[in-house]
Amino acid sequence: MKIGLVRRGFSRTGGAEAYLKRLGRALADAGHEVTLYGTPDWPSAEWPYGKVVTVPGDTPTSFAQNLQAIQPGGDILFSLERVLRCDCYRAGDGVHARWLERRRAHEPVWRDRLRFTNRKHQEIQHLEEILLRQRKAREVITNSDLVKQEIIGTFSYPAERISVIRNGLPEAQFRKRAGTRPEWRNRWDLRGNEIAVLFAGSGWFRKGLHYALEAMAGIKDPRARLLVAGEGRKPWPVPSNVRFLGPVTDMSSLYGAADLFLLPTIYDPFSNACLEAVSFGLPVITTGANGFAEIMRTGTHGEVIADAQNVPALRAAIEKWLDPRLRDGAREACIELACRHSMHNNLQQTLSVLQRLAGSAPDPIQRATPRKVSSDFPGHNGP
Question: What is the pTM of this model?
């Protein structure tokens, strides 16, 4: 098939970008012709899987409008971005209105009022209305039941048109890795008796770093160390048992050096970092607001805390998993869990959806000429 993939923006550490590159590689290897429609900040070296079509757009609306103007061809347009129309939309970022609702419970009221004046949030929500409530996406893929139920509840989108396809890891993730655990721990300056609790990711507020720091501040075990990988604005105060590593390119050695993975997220459709962590045998402590929690068994693969704000429960979970016997007992189960979620499985399930769409006629609403885009966005005067 000729498949167009859509993603606005680029981040070297972004989970969506990592998934898109894995998908592009897998589709190209399977013989499909892949074209990426992305903004100019996509480096050409980051997309060796096919043609790149540059779509300008500094805002969600302008990008969606400019993509519509290009009129992408091919058999299927598969968007990982909120756009005006596509054959299949992968809602990897979740539902924006539900994220804003969750966020309100974790920050001062004045911040929410300030955000209300930010047109970006209004534009994203309006694009979701067009794709989902107006059915301009013929089908939807989510990476968790969490997001599927949010889409049904928010937009009354038909459940039978939503496929839950979990994120997957490339086969290379399961091969023997170069180096040994003592070498990896030495690389990250960890002493033999220290227990490394790893937090990794960007968007520190959403991923609950402030709750992780608060929980670590009360840990009495002197062996416990929280390693924070990624970049952002450091919260204050920082407990003495916390070390910020900055952006990390060699995440494999860091996973290999760590003992436990911590992600007390406020909202995460399905954390790739958690899946990568269990592939190294690391138990995961996360929240019920993470779609990854749906595939975990508490006590077997780690711990699921209902609410990130429950710092005592978070701290108790960390203290529980400082026990080496628990971690050793969970190692094989964690690796086995990761092996069930390979990129190969993700590709086969995704291709099944795309092939079905390529072989079926669009709904009448898809054939209809869309309304003038500028009238769809109150206060927006076009690109």
Answer: 0.88
